[in-house]
Amino acid sequence: MNKKVIYLIFGILLLTLRLLFNYHSELIPGVNGGYYPLQVRILLNTGHLGFSDMPLYFYINLFFVKIASLITTIDTDNIIIHTSKIIDSISLPLLVIPLYLIDKNIFENKLPKFVLLCIVGFVTLSFSPLILTSDLQKNAFAIPFMLFSVYHLFSFYCVKSRRHILLSAIFFILTGLTHFGVFSVLALILIISLILFYRRKALLPLLGVSFSVVLIVYLFDPTRVDRLLNAWNVVFEKPAILHGPVSPPDLVNYTLSYLLIGSGIYFLIKQKESFSTYDRH
Q1: What is the DSSP string of 159-222?
Q2: What string of pLDDT tens digits covers the 281 residues of the chain?
Q3: What is the CA radius of gyration of the chain?
């Protein structure tokens, strides 16, 4: 089976499941499901968010709500809810695009088809991506931005193209404007990769990245800056696996995650002699 077809099939399956999850009830499911239409409604009425947050996702929802209101007579509240459900259903499946590009253009060592199926299946249809539905919309929307940024970042390390570093920076900013947590993960990937590829020369870029991260977060939600700066103090405070009983979905998720990590380490060790200097970094 063609590799592109594998990514396409899993992307369509994830899209279908997300549509089913979002439309199995009249309102948006989940504890935080009402947060997104509420923010969009306040933004529509007042021109600003009701609660401080990274704003991009709400403005994109508002853009499509206004377009829909011009071409349909459906009540605005229903348009807001349907827009939220549709955008949420479409957003995360888009991650198969940067994943395919990373697989095709970055890694020289081709994975066996079975391993590829396991990885793509886990990324799209395991508990972790499926839980990012309905009441975790901004998380899901930010992940494709993060992966596009990572793809262009590593493409830059490979070919030193200004186009790639510019696109990586654009997606970096878009991620920051969408979701704080995903942005933090992306910033950490950027920092670690800079250290690995540039060593001592990474000092100035690291200062620039750190300043940019803090500035972007501070502009839209100053309270999160404290969480960002103090994250190291609490990140290992209450590990879920050691705190109370682990739910069956979490247990399956942890098991599959560690199996993939172990398989990846085994593959790296077994194939280390065939890796290029770039791949070893």
Answers
A1: H--HHHHHHHHHHHHHHHTT-HHHHHHHHHHHHHHHHHHHGGGGHHHHHHHHHHHHHHHHHH-T
A2: 788 999 999 999 999 999 999 998 888 888 788 899 999 999 999 999 988 889 999 999 999 999 999 998 889 999 999 999 999 999 999 999 999 999 888 876 677 788 788 889 888 988 888 888 888 899 999 999 999 999 999 999 888 889 999 999 999 999 999 998 899 899 999 999 888 888 888 788 888 888 888 888 888 877 777 766 665 665 555 565 565 566 666 677 667 777 767 776 676 666 656 555 555 55
A3: 20
What is the spatial distance between Cα 179 and Cα 186, in angstroms, rounded to a whole number?
11
Between CA 188 and CA 177 the distance in angstroms is: 16
Q: Which of 141, 144, 162 is nearest to 153 (CA)?
A: 162
| 56: nearest Cα among 71, 43, 69 | 43
Q: Using the 8-state DSSP alphabet, how is residue 32 labeled?
A: T
138 closest CA partner among 18, 219, 69, 58: 58
| Coil, strand or helix at 143 | helix
Q: Which of 222, 229, 281 is nearest to 53 (CA)?
A: 222
pTM over 0.90: no
**Can you tell me the distance from the alpha carbon of 155 to that of 275, in angstroms, rounded to the nearest whole number?**
17
